[in-house]
Inverse folding.
């Protein structure tokens, strides 16, 4: 075999290796800190902009050991200036309500009704003296008077059910968001190459938390991988894993009923205080995934939210709450589809109100 033939064979064999190395070098050559910094700016901007969209939310909950254990629900959701209203249309495969027609976003009267309802609810929220129960009742009345009694606003704490103890938290794993706003400040960043998502090239970046003394910081507790769209420099996917237990929320409402126990007033007061001092945590090893999709070539909206881990309820002085501090496994998987623009042309104001 001639020297030239050997050289040609060697060149052909090495070409794929060189191409792969070149691709890896290109990925490493990007300014990861600057790419992430700009992506965080874009992410914060898009999350702060109120949106007028309707969509369908399909949610699956796995809660071993909990009531029901499993549920599948589908909701119709309307967002008006960032405020969401929803109604259930399917529960565990059974239809609960008929879905509204697809032409509703073109109906001026329909849009005006929703704008008026939103305005009335916001007015009710700022009235002094409301309890969670009275505010929920007032909002429900507004919805019924508008002929929208099947819809539930996500603007108020849900009315508690009657039981031995009721604790309401502003956030659970169902609503939990990874600390993406802090990616460029609170994490050590490393390029992990490129990947195609929905036909678009994305940078893949690994974010490891920096050391901090703040034990309540989610940025301290999660190792995160993010995918950043190369064209728009937008975060399109994020996947995180908890390195340790971390706080989700303190109780923002607690109630106690003596319907199933013969307790003295002192014992009831003590139990109420215990519930009021309770906190909810996520467990070490909890995984959280968020994915976004570009809608109408104008905005990136949430497509999927998945969380799997455990809730840990911590109650001060747990003598009457034996289940406290025991991790309760839970898994949430939510998919948003059928996004449609809900155009709102004007706002109906009460008589005598000046336009803002």
């Amino acid at each position: 075999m001639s020297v030239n033939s050997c050289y040609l064979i060697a060149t052909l064999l090495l070409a794929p290796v060189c191409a792969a190395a070149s691709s890896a070098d290109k990925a490493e050559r990007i300014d990861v800190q600057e790419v992430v910094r700009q992506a965080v700016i874009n992410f914060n901007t898009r999350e702060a902009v109120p949106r007028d969209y309707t969509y369908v939310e399909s949610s699956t909950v796995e809660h071993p050991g909990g009531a029901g254990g499993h549920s599948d629900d589908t909701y119709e959701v309307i967002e008006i200036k960032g405020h969401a209203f929803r109604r259930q249309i399917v529960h565990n495969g059974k239809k609960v309500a008929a879905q509204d027609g697809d032409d509703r976003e073109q109906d001026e009267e329909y849009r005006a009704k929703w704008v008026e309802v939103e305005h009335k609810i916001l007015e009710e929220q700022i009235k002094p003296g409301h309890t969670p129960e009275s505010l929920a009742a007032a909002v429900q009345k507004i919805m019924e008077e508008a002929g929208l009694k099947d819809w539930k606003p996500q603007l108020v704490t849900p009315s508690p059910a009657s039981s031995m103890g009721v604790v309401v938290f502003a956030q659970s794993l169902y609503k939990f968001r990874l600390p993406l706003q802090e990616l460029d400040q609170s994490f050590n960043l490393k390029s992990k190459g490129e990947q195609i998502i929905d036909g678009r090239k994305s940078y893949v970046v690994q974010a490891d938390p920096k050391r901090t003394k703040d034990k309540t910081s989610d940025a301290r507790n999660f190792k995160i991988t993010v995918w950043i769209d190369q064209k728009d420099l937008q975060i399109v996917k994020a996947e995180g894993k908890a390195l340790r237990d971390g706080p989700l929320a303190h109780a923002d409402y607690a109630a106690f009923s003596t319907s199933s126990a013969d307790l003295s007033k002192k014992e009831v007061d003590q139990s109420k205080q215990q519930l009021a001092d309770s906190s909810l945590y996520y467990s070490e090893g909890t995984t959280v995934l968020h994915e976004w999709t570009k809608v109408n070539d104008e905005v990136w909206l949430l497509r999927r939210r998945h969380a799997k881990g455990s809730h840990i309820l911590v109650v001060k002085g747990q003598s009457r709450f034996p289940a406290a501090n025991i991790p309760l496994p839970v898994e949430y998987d939510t998919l948003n589809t059928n996004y449609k623009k809900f155009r709102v042309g004007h706002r109906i104001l009460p008589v005598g109100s000046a336009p803002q």
Remarks:
- The first helix runs from residue 3 to 29.
- Residues 31-341 form one domain.
- Residues 6-28, 157-164, 346-356 have pLDDT under 50 and may be disordered.
- The chain has seven helices and 15 strands.
